[in-house]
Structures are given as structure tokens and as C-alpha cells.
Amino acid sequence: MPTVLFLMKYPLHKQENLKAKFDGQLAAARALGWKAYCIGWDGQGMSLLGENESIPLKRNALAPVRGYEHTKIFMDLMAAPREAMRRIPVDVLYLRYMPTFRGALKTVRQLKARDGRLVVEYPTYPPDQENSRFFLRRQVFRYTDRIMRKIHPMVDLYALIGEPCGGTLGGRPAVNIVNGVNVTALPPHVPNPADPTVRLLALASMSGWHGYDRILRSLAAYAGGTPVRVEFAGGDGDGSLAVWKALAQELGLSDCVTFHGPLYGSALDQLVAQCDVGLGSLGMYRYGLKQGMTLKLREYMARGLPFVSAVDDPALPDDPDFALRVPNDDTPINMNAVVTFALAAKHTPARGERMRAYARERLSWEGVLRAVLERVSK
User: Fold this and answer.
1) Separation in Å, CA 281 to CA 63, 207, 296, 322
2) For the residues of 107-174, what is the DSSP string, one character each?
3) Cα 118 to the chain's mean position, in Å?
4) CA–CA separation, 153 vs 156, rounded Å?
């Protein structure tokens, strides 16, 4: 049985939005017949995580220090696979693009010396727009890209989420993939026809590209007879959460907007069950983006929760029962149209069933990873 080691920032001591993606990738690889491991971290250090095992790899002295997870962790993450390869055979190292330092070169060379294959995933391709948002981020990723250019000749396959690559990247093999979802891990959404209130779910690590200020302004201007609430679930990504809290208060929306903070597991499932429609990213235009392959929309599809979206996603069906499209610009969102869409969803349970069926067939991580792992199988 071949072995794949996933290298991403996987926390053991807390929940984060991306853990659902990582867990989905691990489960999919195992379903495809691979032994799948990842490197996990907490305040003690790094561990090698298998399906039913956790092997301590190394203690990191600075792990308990505030700010560690945004700085030194990336150096420790690049060193951890060298410790892992002393304990398990690694046929494929699946590296998620992230801040990368010189230790990564040593790790990749050790992998290649053992005849291992290297897959590099770009979760946003091309990454330039995402990497240039803040001054410090630009400097970190400029250095990262210098290291990645040295790693490039040793890459066996790039897995790119974003613009079409045409089968290669800089002369190396590449394949376009989409963000997948683990449908079986998410409970099906059941509509709430008895609830007269329309409840909109804003689920995210709150950042500017989510554009939720647009929905707040639309709600403030709404004069319809159907009561509407917006439920915010998620922490702050770039300072936008505080801005939106202040905006909600300024617009007099305190009675119809709730900021729940980060929710996971059963707590999140309970909130989703109360809502009628999910909100996708509404501010991608602020970063020059017309397309997006966000995990959030895939989770809505897998749950069977209809949603509002402002960007194109080529992997999702153009079905007006599934999604209400709104302009990807700064124009006001028509809240009456959102309410009409939500009321129809309340009374049409078959929509959710069709959404989940589509997600199982077209958006599962198993199908996505099959195309990658088959390419690098020996």
C-alpha cells in the first residue's frame, strides 16, 4: 500500500476552517487505497498523524509563544517531514503552498534521495493577487517564491486550484483541481417552512473579499414584510469582522444581526440547521477576481443549503434552484430577490437533496485526489 504524507498547517489543539478540507483530503486518500499521514502541531511541537496513531516527532521550544503559528511554525513544518521519513516510508509528499524557508530544500532533497514523489498544491492559482494584499505578506512570499524556484525542478506534479494551466507549469507537469468536500461528514440541511423569518448564514474567517458589508447595507435598506436575520459565524481574518460589527450597529441592525464567533462541529451544525440560505463571497471584485473556488460554496452544496454568490465557479452547476447570482461589484444587493429565493428554498426540500447528490458525484475529495495520486503512483 503506497504512503502519502500531507504537509499543511494542521492544528491539534483547536479548530480552524481549513481542517475540514485537510480531513477530507486524508479520508479521500485512504478511500483510494493509500496510507495517509499528515503533520500536526500544538503547543508542544510536531506529531505524525496516521489514521489511528499519533507519533511525536519533535518538541518546538517556541511553540507556546504568542505569534509562533504565524512565524517560526513554517520553519518547523518544513523540518518535520525529515523526522517523519525516519519512521515511515513516504512515496508521495503532498505540499500545500505556504510560507517556505530554506529547510524545505533539505526536506525535498531527502525525499528525492529515497525515490519519493513531490506534489505541490497551490490553493489559489496564480497566487500573486492573494500574496500582495499586505506589505509583510508580500515580503514573505517573495522569499517563498525564491525557494520554490529552487524546488521547482524536483516537483513531480503541481495541483492548481484556479486558472487553467494547460497541463504544465514552468515545464513541469501540472493538473487543475477544484476544492473538494467530504459530503458524508456533513449532515443534510432540512428546510424550515414553519419559521416565518428568513435567516441568512455568513460563514467565513471574515475578510474583505467576503464583502458582507454589502448584505448589511441591503438589509438596512430593505422595506419588505418578511423578517430577515443574518447569522455571522466565524472569527476575524483581516480586521473586517470589527468593521462589520461597527457597521451593523451604525445601520441600526443590532436586532437582526448576530455575531456568533467561530463555530465548529455540532454547534455549527445547529446554526446551519436554523438558516435558510448561505452567503458566498460577495466582494471578490475588490481583489480583481471574477472566479473563485471557495470551500464555503462546496460545503453549502454538500449540506444541501442554497446560497447567494457573486463569483463564477466553473465546478458548480448553473442551477437557479441552487444559487442566486448577484453582481460581482459594489452595486446594492436586491434584498427582495434574496428573500424570494429563501422563501422558495424553505418550501422545496428536493433542492437540498439534488445539491447533495451533485456534490457526491462531482465535488468529493475522492474524485479530486484520484486524478492527482494516479499521476504520481509508481
Assistant:
1) 33, 9, 9, 15
2) HHHHHHHTT-EEEEEEEEES-HHHHTSSHHHHHHHHHHHHHHHHHGGG-SEEEEEES--TTEETTEEE
3) 22
4) 8
> Pairing mode, if any, of strands 35-41 and 45-49?
antiparallel
Under a CB-based contact definition with an 8 Å cutoff, are residues 36 and 6 in contact?
A: yes
Count of CB atoms within 10 A of residue 16's CB?
16
Query: Nearest 5°: phi and psi at 353?
Result: -65, -40
- The helix (H) or strand (E) run that includes residue 232 is strand 228-233
**Can you give the C-alpha Rg of the chain in angstroms?**
21
256 and 219 in contact (C-beta within 8 Å)?
Answer: yes
> Model-level pTM?
0.80
Residues 176 and 215 in one domain: no
Is the same domain home to 76 and 33? yes
The string of pLDDT tens digits covering residues 203-256 is 998 988 899 999 999 999 999 999 999 999 999 988 899 999 999 999 999 999
Regarding beta strands 157-162 and 228-233, do their DSSP bridges make them parallel or antiparallel, or are they unpaired? unpaired
The angle at the Cα of 216, spanning 210 to 218, to the nearest 5 degrees, equals 110
| Domain shared by 69 and 218, yes or no | no
- Is there a single domain that holds both residue 201 and residue 325? yes
168, 207: one domain? no
* Residue 235 C-beta-side C-alpha neighbours within 13 Å: 9
Look at strands 92-96 and 117-125 and give their pairing: parallel
Domain containing residue 272? 184-361
241-284 pLDDT tens trace: 999 999 999 999 999 999 999 998 899 999 999 999 999 999 98
CB 200 within 8 A of CB 277: yes
Sign of the Cα pseudo-torsion (45, 51, 52, 53, in order) = negative
Count of structural domains, the chain: 2
Q: If 0-12 CB within 10 Å is exposed, 13-18 middle and 19+ buried, where does residue 75 land?
A: middle
